[in-house]
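Chain X:
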Amino acid sequence: MITPQEIRKKAERKYIDYLKSLVSKKPFDKLIIRGDKKYTKSSLPEFEKEIQAIVSQSKEKSAYGYSLDFQQVKTKHLGTQDLPISIYFETEQDFLKFLGNQKEVDFFKLNVKKITNVFPYLEEWIINKPIKVIQNEKKWDDILKVCLYFKNNPLPSLYVRELPIKIHTKFIEDNKGVIKELLDVVISDYIQKDKKQFEKRFNLKYAEPQIRFKVLDQEISQTFFSGLDDIAIQISQFENLHLPIEKVIVFENKTNFYTALTLPKMRKTIALFGSGFRVYNLKNVKWFKDKTILYWGDLDAQGFEILSQFRGYFPNVKSIFMDKKTFNKFFENDNGTLSKVLTKLNLTEKEKMLYDILKENNWRLEQEKIPLDYVNSYFEKEYANALNHTH
């Protein structure tokens, strides 16, 4: 037989539909809870205990809650007994008092009125997401201020914290989820639908990722950057650079990027910090496509996975210091991070063989463990070869 706890769970599942009916102004209809007509067959005391449990929390005993209709039924095992044939909430008050949600619903009604008075066409959103109205019950004055501002200024081109709205400076940042859903409706004709980032989607300024790079050609440094050679600029500015370079060296981590500061000068070359898997920030740098791109990552599974990702953007990427000779020479029995990647990687045969060994044994040779004289020796030879080709 159904228990009071099961009745509560079933009543709670009907709460969302009840809230929806409030928004669409449907009158409260008797709310029926489907019961379980089975009962304990073993003994009369057990049966009476089940009946007593249901009755104890009914409207008959508590002055509110669910009502029970009984009917005399001749049972196979326990003779003629009164069995509950119907469980229902007769009034809205019975339902809400039983759930303990009266105060919550009062706030809900107040906020629905508040929202629809300003934006009547948000009624459909409320019907679809009534719980979000409740989850944000104390924030609606400020949420509506934000929506009204965007309604009147759909192309603000300001940073989030610059917006002239009388709210806490972090309010929008802390409530982006619900505000995004509302603005998608309120200013649907102005949003960048293909953008997921809040600032891009709603025409705001945003802090772009920065690309840090080292100019290894003194002449380019002097001509284009007044002699500066260690530079960090926004990705959009980096994408639009027009430098007479031929080679780009990408370092996976920052520690080894600092190695670039000691690299020998190289003609028409820059070195930059790729920042691990964030090499995706470089995927739209179109001027990379006709350059020689060298990638130096850690000798571990993730290093090769990042190389594969980067090569997906630029097929011309060549790895350096990511070979078996370098690994065997400097490996110090360090463990890496276990890789769960199962997809086929964009690696050469030699890279794939070393990747499989590193992944299987969870080995790692970090970039920092490769001595500077070994690195500089490689680049000095590269530089000498480049000079020979120019003569």
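Chain Y:
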Amino acid sequence: MEPLLTRLKNFNKGLLGDKVQLKYEAMAENAFRFFRGTCHLFYEDLAAAAPLPLSPLAWICGDLHIENFGSYKGDNTLVYFDLNDFDEALLAPASYETVRTVTSIFIAFDNLGFEDEKAFNMAQLFLRTYSATLAKGKAVSIDPRTAKGIVCDFLRAASRSTYKDLLKKRTVGKRKSIRLSMEDERHFKLNKPLRKELNAHIRDWIKTSSDGPYHYEVIGSVFRLAGTGSIGLKRYLFLLKSTNTKNHFLLIDMKQARASSAQPYVPVQQLHWDAEAQRVISVQQRMQNVPAALLSTTEFQGDSYIIQELQPVKDSINFKLLKDYRDMYQVIDDMAALTASAQLRSGGMQGSGTIDELMAFGTDQGWQEAVIRYAQLYALTVNNYYREFLKDYKNGKYGTS
């Protein structure tokens, strides 16, 4: 296998060079952030390892880890806690989703300074709840009415967030002179020709797309930086102003979609999608209990893009702030139930295992030990990768992408 330096540089070669440097900087923060930024390594290594026990095919988000669950507003206006990142989504063995999530538990808990035993207990809890939910064959959902403990507090706090709060963080000025803030470290100025083309494109999207918000005009746009794995993709933020409601604004995110980094290493025939963005939102809509509000696709200058509203309620639980082990227990338990529920919801769809097959997999306890064993070993591999990466990064070997 090629050296780590070569593998990382080759994967990031097609991304925006100056932004890739910011991605490497983010990945150098800690081993967990490195893991978030190297989904392709995970699947490449998984394909080369001894195979996991057989599991039914399922629609998976592909990059599931404990920070890819969060709050969002559904198109029914309710706030939910659910899986919330589907850039790497595809059809794969159901166990692939669990082994990546369990690996993330081992890496994150080590990074947070928790004992190995507690991480192991959490990994067991995740697989136990995941299996039990599958075995019941009935998907569950979590909103402020059904949430418990820290997740309930998290959702209630998210529900109180307003667009006024979001605008305060992202914009400067008042009323007619409002504009996107360039003091935000996640915002970058666009060159004038590109900004002009982008604004014209979104104006056309508003007029012609059935998913677009009516009666809005574009009044600003910037390049937007977000996430870890997605840093380096083309991503833009637009400020829209209502043309018939005074002082009403929307923030729209437009993110480039590329092929799933897992696809080359998953030995499963994939569906043909018209565009990568269509793959992302189609799988998202079938796996989430309620689709997110204002979710759409577009094509700009030959690239496929996902369009979605930037929501004041969209957030992820910060595990660094969770000091109580019981709080973590409730969060991991909920995440496991949601993972199984997403697979049940999409069961039997276009190649996925049927509900009965997923239920039988949940009843079978024979595969869980192999998943935990692989996740433990791979967490050690990631830590070794991270140390090697950090050494090379500090020595300037990632100075050019």
